[in-house]
């Protein structure tokens, strides 16, 4: 099977506008047509993992730490006043590239937009959803 596009970028086989690279995570610009804002950055673990649930703790920790550093840089360098961190795992969540990644999107007061789901899910869970979640930790 051919490596995913993010693995090819990390390997240097595809071009990228790099923001930062470290041992466990990298940050680069999305394709210009898919940028949600100036400075929108993708943060990706170096190790291929297709889903949030399968990420090794070291890869996940490094990726979220780098996302935080990118957000700080967006505020300092670009004057952003807010940050949206977007991540989708699985086809039903809208994940388009099967490699765990976070979108770090800077925001400003004049954006006149939000990056939040516009509608509530229509899915129904029988019983108390949060009680069922809490049972998973017992």
Notes on the structure:
With 138 residues, the chain is of the alpha+beta class. 26% of the residues lie in helices and 17% in strands. A five-stranded antiparallel β-sheet has the order 1-2-3-5-4, covered by helices on one side. The protein is globular. The mean pLDDT is 91.
Radius of gyration (Å):
17 Å
- The total of helices stands at 3
Q: Please indicate the count of domains.
A: 1
Mean pLDDT: 91
**Annotation, overall tally of beta strands:** 5
Q: Into which percentage range does the β-strand content fall?
A: 15-25%
CATH architecture: 2-Layer Sandwich
Helix content percent band = 25-40%
CATH class: Alpha Beta
- Mind describing the biggest β-sheet? 5 strands, antiparallel
Q: Structural class, from secondary structure content? A: alpha+beta
**Span of the ends, CA to CA:** 39 Å
Low-confidence stretches: none
Order of helices and strands: HEEEHEEH
Corresponding CATH superfamily: HIT-like
Net shape: globular
List keywords for this structure.
five-stranded antiparallel sheet; 138 residues; HIT family, subunit A; 17% strand; 3 helices; alpha+beta; 26% helix
State the gist of this model.
It is built from three helices and five strands.
Task: Lay out the secondary structure.
Layout: H1 5-11, E1 18-21, E2 25-28, E3 41-45, H2 57-78, E4 82-86, E5 102-107, H3 129-135
Antiparallel strand pairs: 1-2, 2-3, 3-5, 4-5
């Amino acid at each position: 099977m051919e490596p995913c596009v993010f693995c090819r970028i990390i390997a240097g086989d595809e071009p990228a506008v790099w923001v930062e690279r470290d041992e466990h995570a990298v940050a680069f610009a999305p394709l210009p047509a898919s940028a949600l804002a100036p400075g929108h950055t993708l943060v990706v673990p170096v190790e291929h993992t297709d889903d949030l649930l399968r990420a090794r703790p070291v890869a996940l920790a490094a990726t979220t730490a780098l996302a935080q550093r990118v957000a700080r840089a967006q505020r300092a360098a670009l004057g952003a006043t807010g940050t949206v961190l977007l991540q989708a795992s699985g086809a039903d969540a809208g994940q388009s590239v099967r490699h765990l990644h976070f979108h770090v999107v800077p925001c400003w007061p004049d954006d006149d937009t939000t990056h939040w789901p516009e509608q509530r899910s229509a899915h129904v869970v029988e019983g108390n959803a949060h009680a069922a979640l809490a049972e998973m930790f017992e």
